[in-house]
Specification:
This protein is α/β, with parallel strands linked by helices. Helices cover 38% and strands 17% of the residues. A 7-stranded mixed sheet has the order 4-5-3-2-1-6-7.
């Protein structure tokens, strides 16, 4: 699969109710910045790591753990506090460099009457509310944005539109990026028989998705 370096300063945003992620790609300085909301006390406030191989060889990867500012409350107020923190994080990321392009994850739809799908649709409704808040914030900053379907992001990143979180992370390593587990001080959970990862924890898969969205948006 052909992998091309982005040519534009790009912000990619992976929307999530618990731990959204944002990535800024800056070809001029050859720096990439990752942003996530603090959710584990073991997460360092920030990190820097050289990218030594692959498409982004010679670049530096920077991690920024953003503290939650909104007061913790219950019910619907708690949900909108999450929105507030997410918007603040994206605003901070967008202000780091003069971004030329912003990529936002598009909305997926779930259809059906099973309990699982009904619950999933409720989550999707809340994600659309968060998406509206983010789009308004981006517009207030004077930026336009590109919406990218999740399947398109996965296909661009690892060759299949149905990629799992584990496949997305393996593609992250294949692109030459450093292993995020030690950088975030998170432990791997391996299958005893196969030795493969059984689960990619937050915020790792959110950060991987945000970089994939930024790469995809930059090529538009």
């Amino acid at each position: 699969m052909r992998r091309k370096l982005p040519s534009k300063r790009t912000l990619g945003v992976d929307m999530g109710l618990v731990s959204p992620g944002a990535a800024v790609i800056d070809p001029e300085s050859r720096n990439m910045h990752l942003f996530w909301l603090r959710s584990h006390v073991c997460e360092p406030a920030n990190f820097s790591a050289s990218i030594c191989k692959g498409t982004f060889a010679g670049w530096v990867l920077h991690g920024h753990c953003v503290e939650r500012e909104a007061e913790a409350r219950e019910g619907k107020v708690q949900l909108f506090n999450r929105f507030h923190d997410s918007v603040n994080m994206v605003t901070r990321a967008a202000g780091l460099v003069r971004v030329e392009c912003i990529g936002l994850e598009g909305f997926a739809e779930a259809y059906g009457a099973s309990k699982h799908l009904i619950k999933l649709r409720k989550t999707q409704t809340m994600l659309k509310q968060l998406g509206g808040c983010l789009r308004m914030a981006v517009s207030d900053m004077g930026h336009d944005w590109i919406e990218i379907a999740p399947t398109s992001v996965k296909k661009k990143w690892c060759g299949t539109g149905k990629a799992s979180k584990e496949q997305m992370y393996q593609a992250w390593l294949d692109w030459g990026f450093p292993d995020l587990f030690p950088l975030l001080r998170l432990q791997r959970k391996l299958n005893k028989r196969s030795g493969q990862l059984t689960k990619i924890p937050k915020p790792i898969h959110d950060l991987v998705d945000s970089v994939a969205i930024a790469v995809c948006a930059s090529s538009k």
